Amino acid sequence: MTIDAADIGALWLTLRLAAITTLLLLLIGVPLAWKLSHWQSRWRHAVEVIITLPLVLPPTVLGFYLLLAFSPNYAPGRWLAESFGQPLVFSFTGLVIASVIYSLPFMVQPLLASFSQNGRRLTSAAAALGMPPLAALLRVLLPASRPAIISACALSFAHTLGEFGVVLMIGGAIPGETQVVSIALYQHVEAMEYGAAHRLALVLVAVTTALLLLARWLGRAATAKERDIPVLGVPG
Amino acid sequence: MRALAVLGALLVLALPARADDCRLQVAVAASFRPALETLLPEFEAATRCRVMLTSGSSGALYQQALHGAPFDLFLSADRERPGLLEQQGRIVPGSRRTYARGLLALWLPDAGRGSEALLRRWRDTLVLADPEVAPFGVAARQVLQSLGLWEAGGARLARAHNAGHAFVLLESGHARLGFVAASQMVAAGRTNLWLLPQHLYQPIEQQLVVLRQARSPSTAAALADFLVSDGSRRRLVALGYGPGAGEGS
Q1: In this complex, do B173 and A187 lie within 8 Å of one another by their Cβ atoms?
Q2: Domains present along chain B, CATH in parentheses
Q3: Does A187 sit within 8 Å of B133, measured CB to CB?
Q4: Which residues bind molybdate (chain B) (predicted)?
Q5: Radius of gyration (Cα) for chain A, nearest Å?
Q6: Whole-model pTM above 0.80?
Q7: Mean model confidence pLDDT for chain A
Q8: Is it the case that residue B222 has pLDDT exceeding 90?
Q9: The pLDDT of residue B248 is above 50
Q10: Domains, chain A, ranges and CATH?
Q11: Lowest mean pLDDT: which of A91-95, A183-187, B105-109?
């Protein structure tokens, strides 16, 4: 089974995109979910709904609005291009931003569920023992939420790997820059190169399956370890 | 109780809509949909038939037609896919015809004149529909090849997934030069275009076929006749399509 260099380039680009996106989402998602899980305002629900929106909008529609948001014809787009020092459409940076928006719910929802379930109990226990809130987050809540964090990362990563509609709208299929696997696959199918399409799809599925199995395995290890944390043994 | 109400609402939404007596299901390449919609009212009034449209990329519609989608008529944006359907025995024999000829245009940065020289010296982003996917992309690639710019050109090529997307990218200012369909420029009332000389690319023949699975093949054939009639052809020329689209090859 052979895969041509362009497809390998697309695969590598996709993995890089998914890794960077997941990392950024982790940095954004943890504080966001933490804040939301503690927020007593009724605005909390509104913010939760807004975070869920990328699930509702069809990806190409989301991509279309990103096109408009990044457009140099309007002030916001000009400001964005200036801040990033380059136009965002047809660029890898643009794909990263789009992917972060697109996969945000896949990171935040599992974290939020976990934080809301264990969070208050754990943080109040930590506070009762005299721990400041930030330390409680870093040293108690995050370790206790490891399974949720791992599954959120796995979901975000997988979701970015399979991302198609958004990239189709704003990418420009530039090899080595924005031509990700899903686009390369689409081109093969449309050009009726089914052999190449099947091979690439097989590699994508194999890589994704391996990564998700790894994440599950890590998650299970984390759950097993978590049982040793005595604080969880204390009834609520 | 509330769960019952929600379930009821879901059931109502899931019920099939009432079917009309005479209904034609037409699969049309997305780029031709607006033009088709301007032609259809006349046909619908004359035949008292409702024409339902499914639009998408010719490639996707081809796949759907091949795998038994309930289309009566398929209007592709190219001639390859109707030809394939014919070879595969999926069409009513003899129904393949050219209904329109696409014209390739170059979106210009301003209302000035376009030229080969402009393409040669362009170093910025140049938008074209993806040649792997879209007929207008194939034509754009042929132009660049004719000018010796495909391998060696200085422009940064950004690929749109079809001519419509290329137009959106240019209109929203993400690039200042790019290949689009003349019909899109006409529809948008824009004049910053250069119609590419037709010796630079193969004609973009758009063909239609009546599918073998058609439920009303005679009505589908009537619509095909209507589309290739002189009256329709004149209106298509006014909409930015090429003249002289003849019968199928």
Answers
A1: no
A2: 21-101+205-238 (3.40.190.10), 104-195 (3.40.190.10)
A3: yes
A4: 31, 58
A5: 20
A6: no
A7: 87
A8: yes
A9: no
A10: 5-226 (1.10.3720.10)
A11: A183-187
CB contact under 8 A, B132 and A190: yes
Q: CB contact, 8 Å: A6 with chain B?
A: no
At residue A232, the pLDDT reads: 45
Question: What does the alpha-carbon distance between residue A178 and residue A164 come to, in Å, rounded to a whole number?
Answer: 11
A77 neighbors A71 (Cβ within 8 angstroms): yes
A75 touches chain B (CB under 8 A): no
B124, B125, B128, B133: best mutation site toward chain A, by most A Cβ within 10 Å? B133
Q: Burial-class residue B104 by CB neighbours within 10 Å (0-12, 13-18, 19+).
A: buried
Quote the pLDDT of residue A234. Answer: 44
For residue A222, give the 3-state DSSP assignment: helix
Give the type of residue at B213.
Answer: Q
| Residue B180 reports pLDDT greater than 90 | yes
- A185 Cβ partners below 8 Å, 6+ apart? A197, A200, A201, A204
Tokens representing residue B247 in the block: 């019968």
List pLDDT tens digits, range A164-221.
999 999 998 888 889 999 999 988 888 878 899 999 999 989 988 898 888 788 777 7
d(CA B87, CA B214): 17
Residues of chain B in Cβ contact (below 8 Å) with chain A: 57, 59-60, 125, 127, 130, 132-133, 156-161, 165, 168-169, 172-175
Separation of alpha carbons B143 and A166, rounded Å: 29
Contacts of B160 in chain A (CB under 8 A): 172
CB contact under 8 A, B174 and A71: yes
> What pairs with residue B55 in β-bridges?
B28
Q: What is the pLDDT of residues B123-179, one digit of tens each?
A: 999 999 999 888 899 999 999 999 999 988 789 999 998 888 999 999 999 999 999
